[in-house]
Automatic annotation (TrEMBL):
Gene3D superfamilies (UniProt xref): Microbial ribonucleases
Protein name: Guanine-specific ribonuclease N1 and T1
InterPro entries: N1-like (IPR000026), Ribonuclease/ribotoxin (IPR016191)
Coiled-coil regions listed in the entry: none
A Pfam family this chain is assigned to: Ribonuclease
UniProt key word Hydrolase: yes
Length: 159
């Protein structure tokens, strides 16, 4: 018996579209802090990574954990990464034996957390004979990060 997950897929697509819309609206609706300076930290590309309310707390879809880090919406991830996210959300099964292993954050590019906080999952790379370089890293508070260059750089995934 085959069970189709179209409702779950539709919800994921709708969530990604709403996240993208929120990002566009937030970026267009905010002009800065009233002093000629844009709110929030800048990403390495120079664009504003998020907006801040006058009290200084994050009010956009870009969480504080991603301050200064590039971000990517789920819908902008490669199809294989979205497949891996579905496996993570479902609790498995995972195609690679090392999926779910503790990620040590030895590169110190993710926010510091105690050992065991982060876990890594392989994102299949078409044509690769091994696990390839693409990974999703999840934290205990359900934050998600994506790397396509084997931990040299990360993007915070907006979910």
């Amino acid at each position: 018996m085959m069970i189709h997950s179209r409702p779950r897929r539709a919800v994921a697509v709708l969530g990604a579209l709403l996240t993208g819309l929120l990002l566009v609206l937030t970026g267009c609706a905010t002009g800065g802090d009233g002093k000629g300076r844009p709110d929030g930290p800048r990403s390495p590309g120079g664009s504003v990574a998020g907006t801040r309310s006058p009290g200084g707390s994050a009010e956009s879809a870009v969480p504080d954990r991603a301050a200064g880090m590039p971000v990517v919406a789920v819908g902008e991830l490669p199809a294989q990464a979205r497949d891996t996210l579905r496996h993570i959300d479902a609790g498995g099964p995972f195609p690679y034996p090392k999926d779910g292993a503790v990620f040590g954050n030895h590169e110190r590019l993710l926010p510091p957390q105690p050992r065991g906080y982060y876990h890594e999952y392989t994102v299949r790379t078409p044509g690769s004979r091994d696990r390839g370089a693409r990974r999703l890293i999840t934290g205990d508070r359900h934050e998600t990060y994506y790397t396509d260059d084997h931990y040299r750089t990360f993007k915070a995934v907006l979910r």
